[in-house]
Request: fold
Amino acid sequence: MGTGEVHRRRWTIRLSAVVVAVAAAGYGLAAARFGPALSGVAPAAATGSLPAGGPAVQPRSLTVSTDAGKVFGRTTGLVDQFLGIPYAAPPVGRLRWEPPRPVRPWAGIRSALSYGSRCPQLPSTNGPRFDTENCLAVNVYAPAVIPAGAKLPVLFMINGGALENGAGDQHDGSLLAQEAQIIVVSFNYRLGPFGFLTLPGLTAARSAVNGNFGLLDMEAALSWVKRNIAAFGGDPGAVAIGGESAGAGAVCALLASPPAAGLFSRAILQSGGCVSEPAAAAQQNSLFLAARAGCTVPAKAAACLRSKPEATLLNASAGYLPQFVSGGPELPVSPAQAIASGRFNKVPILLGTNRDEARPLAAAAAFWTQQQYVQFVTSTFGAALAPAVLKAYPLSDFPQPYAIAYALAAELTDSGVIDGIGGCSEQNLAQRFVSDRTQTFFYEFDDRNAPPLSNNLPPRYQDGAGHATDLAYMWPSFTNGLSFYAELTGAQLRLSRQMIAYWGAFVRDGAPAAAFQPPWRSYGSRLLMSLRPGDQSHEILGAEFAVEHNCAFWNTIGKSAEGVPSMGALTPRARHVGARARWLLTALGE
Reply:
């Protein structure tokens, strides 16, 4: 079937959905098909199960059978939503630090009209504090009209938040499902000390000797998709995993994780690197938290922590830095080493970065003196390298009155010192995949007038295409308390539709070949896509990107412990820099 015919079919399907919804509303048929689910009101309680002897006639398209029982969803008329479906048993009590266990089947029909609770997390701009450990749930978004017998490709989205906060409810997939005609799945996974604490004796399971409970949750959710997504109209053999920031780091971890083999067929990494830490470092980090929780004897820390209530552990987690841990069955080697050696789950890759990743972070330096700036650069890059960094980024190259903040942002972005996010580190990761002959598509989000993530910026400070500013273009539900999508201009809305078309095509076909959009060739051609508003997106040379981010300078420094050609001399300071930067990024919200 030709590209034009495929495009016509998709628009026919989309138009059919509109006609059905309008006709139902116009002729009073909505109640017959959608019932109370149109308004989000459950036919019984909003949680738990409906009695087996409930209404004799259920809206068939909104009642779906999973391997644990039936669920009842809701619809917008164009998109059906099934929210808060448990994919694993609640990780409470003896299951707190154990691999996810199968969910207990339920009788009757379970309401799927509202999100489940977020996993325990401290307050941030990603949301308020949550203390509910019973949080492992998935959300499914599907076009309301799917042709008989069709199975749509699936996007499985992993939220960011430094592995400390955030949730699947930030990724309402309705817009993508409607426009791209795909199934979208978001979900919650264990965060912070509940998801990544690493101590001997903490768990009885051999498969999680090094923690990574959050990673095991991701794999359990993917297994749920493989077993159940066909019932929602999805193709279990066409699942793309995607993530932004820490979610992109999770995607890289899944690429490197042997238990994840066969659970996905494409991967999308947005503004994230392949970061992890060895078990020894993770244990030191965990002992720091244990001491804050009152467990000061290392040999007894695991048993002591098990006796603590959830609130005590969460309170103690301020300053704790969760990270994926290498050296166990789920991550035999670090993700960066797995990619570098070619020992990873081989699937087509779409990855990219925002042009000004560190601008939101560097706003904190808006009113620094030059002495403060030089001290920070010296502490970050080391006394031996700081003079070269300062020379490569003269303040005269940046506009006043925030030249210091803009210069710092460029240094942090271009180097990728913050968890491999930005500039040269992202380009080198793309090249690493290409060198392994992996079909790879590279991009840069380059809308430098994107709505900023904060309304507390210094006057006239330009956030540019900062970290996470791209999310609202595909996920209107990503708000951080501000409605970014509502602020998009007409030109930016055209970029939004373009990105949805590209991402949808990649989920569907493993390549972002979208009808009526500029061509986007694989990075093997040394070309990447520059995503710009107002129909101005176009391919640029990798060499142009490298000049833009000063990669000739950064790539001469060497190779870091994560295998990225840059920042090698900074390895002793990498954790220190990452600690401060990740904390600030979390405070800004991802």
